């Protein structure tokens, strides 16, 4: 048996009840903490060499440009750092914000930084540079329920230059996510490991660990753990397990406690569970009511099976050669016919191969 988002590793900053997680992909959809973030660019956009540690977004370097961030689960706020807004001989540009499709006036300033003079808020609520400068701003926070936000760079006069910024979303509550395991129900033969694909859509905060568990009771997962592993592969343990009993494999995530997941972590998270059953190898016993076979006649052999039907039995005898037959129940019969010219003497009917629904007999 072969039993076998892409995510960015980003820093997080905790502010009161809000954990800020950085968004860094330039297009498409990626999971970032508590939501899936879809990034859509329009107009003149690029990814600059980081200026003053800010990026990777750059809008308006040749013409007006914007980035729109859409969230599958609405978030409770965002935070920006930005650099390179012009109001000088090169040109004048300003930042405009739209939240949930509507213009959003900025009313609370950010924090001045060492990258340049701070921006100013226009009377209409847009952001502009201090006159005669190239201005920056850090830690501009917007606390709103946000399904989408657009940051637009527009020009008032002269030559475009572009504004670069980085962007963080606010997620509240527990963010640890053990993800999902994409696998069907497993039936495993003796001596084989139960292996599932690694969990996807996981999210680990600083200090978290992802493990895998094998357990017996989905109604008492933590109380019925039989084994823990760093990889999603488990072997049958005859000391604590039984064949034909359903067990479960899941991913588990939480605080790292001496190399294992702390089961007392209040943000402990467990993925979906994949059922797995170790099946015993099938067996067959052959018997005959009358062991005396006459030349030119046939006799009936009875086969008794253990395992799960149907059974695919291959058998052989010196008088009949090899044959294969399928049986739909745990017992059945087949005929052995002796040629009329067969030599007198003993012979053996032997099972040489057996497969049931789950496993072969070796």
What is the secondary structure topology, with strand pairs?
Elements: E1 12-15, E2 18-23, E3 28-32, E4 35-43, E5 45-46, E6 57-59, E7 65-75, E8 78-87, E9 91-99, E10 102-103, E11 120-121, E12 127-128, E13 133-142, E14 146-158, E15 163-171, E16 186-188, E17 194-195, E18 208-215, E19 225-229, E20 233-234, E21 246-257, E22 260-261, E23 269-270, E24 274-278, E25 283-288, E26 298-306, E27 311-317, E28 321-327, E29 331-337, E30 350-355
Parallel strand pairs: 16-24
Antiparallel strand pairs: 1-2, 2-15, 3-4, 4-7, 5-6, 6-15, 7-14, 8-13, 8-15, 9-10, 9-12, 9-14, 11-12, 17-20, 18-19, 18-21, 21-22, 21-23, 21-24, 25-26, 26-29, 27-28, 27-30
Query: What is the distance, rounded to the nearest whole angstrom, between the alpha carbons of the first and last residues?
Result: 14 Å
The profile of the biggest β sheet is:
8 strands, antiparallel
Oligomer: single chain
Overall pLDDT level: 88
- The helix/strand class is mainly beta
Envelope shape: elongated
Number of helices: 0
Q: What is the number of beta strands?
A: 30
Radius of gyration: 34 Å
Low-confidence stretches: 1-16
**H/E series:** EEEEEEEEEEEEEEEEEEEEEEEEEEEEEE
- Helical percentage: under 10%
Determine the strand fraction and express it as a percent band: over 45%
Task: Write up what this structure looks like.
- There is one protein chain.
- The chain contains no helices and 30 strands.
- The strands form 6 sheets. Strands 3, 4, 7, 9, 10, 11, 12 and 14 form an 8-stranded antiparallel beta sheet that branches. Strands 1, 2, 5, 6, 8, 13 and 15 form a 7-stranded antiparallel beta sheet that branches. Strands 16, 18, 19, 21, 22, 23 and 24 form a 7-stranded mixed beta sheet that branches.
- The chain has 362 residues and is mostly beta strands.
- Residues 1-16 have low confidence and may be disordered.
- The protein has strands at residues 12-15, 18-23, 28-32, 35-43, 45-46, 57-59, 65-75, 78-87, 91-99, 102-103, 120-121, 127-128, 133-142, 146-158, 163-171, 186-188, 194-195, 208-215, 225-229, 233-234, 246-257, 260-261, 269-270, 274-278, 283-288, 298-306, 311-317, 321-327, 331-337, 350-355.
- It is elongated and about 115 Å long.
């Amino acid at each position: 048996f072969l039993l076998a988002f892409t995510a960015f590793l980003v820093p997080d900053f905790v502010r009161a009840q809000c954990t800020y997680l950085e968004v860094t992909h330039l297009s498409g959809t990626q999971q970032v903490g508590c939501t899936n973030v879809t990034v859509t660019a329009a107009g003149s956009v690029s990814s600059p060499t980081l200026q003053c540690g800010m990026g990777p977004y750059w809008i308006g370097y040749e013409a007006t440009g914007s980035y729109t961030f859409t969230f599958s689960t609405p978030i409770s706020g965002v935070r920006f750092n930005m650099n390179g807004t012009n109001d000088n001989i090169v040109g004048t540009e300003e930042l405009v914000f739209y939240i949930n499709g509507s213009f959003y006036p900025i009313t609370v300033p950010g924090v001045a930084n060492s990258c340049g003079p701070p921006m100013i808020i226009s009377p209409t609520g847009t952001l502009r540079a201090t006159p005669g400068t190239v201005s920056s701003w850090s830690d501009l926070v917007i606390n709103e329920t946000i399904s989408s936000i657009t940051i637009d760079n527009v020009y008032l006069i002269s030559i475009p230059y572009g504004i670069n910024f980085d962007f963080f979303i606010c997620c509240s509550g527990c963010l640890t996510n053990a993800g999902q395991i994409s696998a069907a129900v497993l039936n495993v033969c003796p001596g084989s490991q139960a292996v599932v694909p690694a969990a996807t859509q996981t999210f680990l905060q600083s200090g978290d660990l992802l493990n895998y568990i094998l357990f017996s009771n989905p109604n008492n997962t933590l109380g019925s753990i039989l084994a823990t592993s760093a990889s999603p592969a488990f072997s049958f343990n005859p000391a604590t397990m039984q064949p034909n009993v359903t067990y479960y494999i899941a991913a588990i995530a939480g605080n790292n406690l001496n190399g294992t997941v702390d089961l007392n972590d209040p943000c402990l998270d467990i993925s979906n569970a994949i059922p797995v059953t170790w099946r015993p190898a099938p067996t067959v016993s052959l018997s005959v009511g009358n062991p005396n076979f006459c030349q030119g006649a046939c006799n009936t052999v009875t086969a008794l099976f253990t395992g799960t039907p149907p059974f695919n039995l291959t058998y052989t005898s010196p008088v009949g050669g090899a044959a294969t037959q399928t049986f739909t129940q745990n017992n059945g019969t087949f005929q052995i016919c002796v040629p009329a010219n067969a030599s007198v003497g003993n012979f053996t009917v032997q099972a040489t191969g057996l497969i049931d629904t789950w496993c072969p007999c070796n």
